[in-house]
User: Fold Leishmanolysin-like peptidase from Neobodo designis.
Amino acid sequence: MRTIRTLAFAALLCAASSLHLAHAADAGATAPTCLHDEPDIQREQARLLQRNGAAVQAYAPSVHTQGGRLFHAQQAQPIRIAFSVEDLTEAGAFCSSTSGTAPSYRSDGDRVTCNDPSYILNDTKRTILQQNILPAAVAELQRYFSVEPVVGNLRASGTTVCGTDFTVPLSHVTTGVPNADLVVYVASSPIPGDTVAFAGACQRDQNGRAVFGRMNFGTENIEWDAIGADARQSLIDTAVHEILHVMGITSTEFFRTGRSTTATKRGKTVRMVTTPSVRSFVRQWSGCSTLEGAEVEDEQTSGPEGSHWERKLFFDEVMAASGGGASAMSGLTLGFLHD
Assistant:
């Protein structure tokens, strides 16, 4: 497991002073941002999850206490993630020319203008996304996550399980998707600005585990041969980051009753995730035995606030608001999903 590099700041986590944690994130460094906490995306996720409720059928009733997520359990298996990619070829689902519009996939009916050549989804970009980026992201996640596998086919609650803009084949409702623990509907439409992709959950099973989700990977960001190895890894890390949002790294899950608290740190009130595994990890990492939990990003802008670890402290963690280059999968993210 890669580790977080910002150990120089670890001792400061205990402090309640007004000390400011300077870092590249505060010094004007640019990095891709995440839209997961923008109001329209949060409203859409909440609407879909409330409407869809639990899965149509119950999957492998769990005898464990971790919401169906099993780690190092005998019957656990690496998570099987299937991608449904109809919207990469469906007419009208993406930009095919620099005229017209395409779905933005932020909320039902919202459109984006196809007014830039980089917004056009061609066969090369489809291949990169389907054969390079997404499979590598799944391989990375399977290194860390094992779950109680779905028995039988995974069935969606309806063809609008992820809203009206994402295409859900009728067979996913009637027959279901075989050999999958999580199905993600993938689109590629422009995302103007510095966001590479965004994603969210659509439907959960009876244990609270996400079983259907959606992702839009910005067309203008899809490259491969013309970029270096670090840039390629950054695209893979972005896909991992977004799938982890689908799996449960989100403000909705962070702030459920009993999972968080507020505390005064560095002269301000911060929100902290306090689940057992998260608290244990951050205390060991910081060397602070009284630390309440892990701070959550509180930047008051529409995007990173709420569903990410505090980037000033956990800059290289894969679920920090913006990447520091390493995208480490740490005990923060693993521990929270375990809990």
Q: What stands out?
A: The mean pLDDT is 81.
